[in-house]
Specification:
Blueprint lengths: L1 H9 L26 H10 L3 H8 L3 H5 L6 H13 L8
Helix pairs in contact: 2-3
Length: 92
C-alpha cells in the first residue's frame, strides 16, 4: 500500500494533457445524450458523439474539420437508426 501511495504522490500531472473544452450532456448533431468515455473522446476531436463521429465525421474528416455537417434528413435517418438499436447496458 505504501508503494502505491508513494507512486501516486510522485506522479506529475501534465496540464497540457487536459482540455478546457466543456463536454455537453447532449450531442450537438444528433441531440442524444453523450453518456460514455468514447463520446467524450470523440467530442474533444470532432465536437460530436461517438455515433455521429463514426457515421459522419470520421469518414469525411477533412470536410468535417472545414465545417461540413450532415443535412437535416441525414441526421433524422441517423437518429432513427440509433433509436432502433438495443440500449447498451455496459457502464464505463
Amino acid at each position: 500500500m505504501e508503494k502505491i501511495q508513494e507512486s501516486l504522490a510522485n506522479k506529475q500531472i501534465d496540464k497540457d494533457s487536459h482540455t478546457d473544452k466543456i463536454i455537453p450532456m447532449f450531442c450537438p448533431v444528433c441531440e442524444f445524450i453523450m453518456g460514455n468515455s468514447l463520446d467524450h473522446d470523440c467530442y474533444i476531436e470532432f465536437s460530436c458523439c461517438q455515433a455521429c463521429t463514426m457515421k459522419f465525421a470520421a469518414p469525411r474528416r477533412d470536410d468535417w474539420k472545414n465545417g461540413w455537417r450532415p443535412s437535416a434528413p441525414e441526421i433524422k435517418d441517423h437518429k432513427l437508426a440509433i433509436s432502433s438499436q438495443s440500449p447498451s447496458f455496459i457502464l464505463d
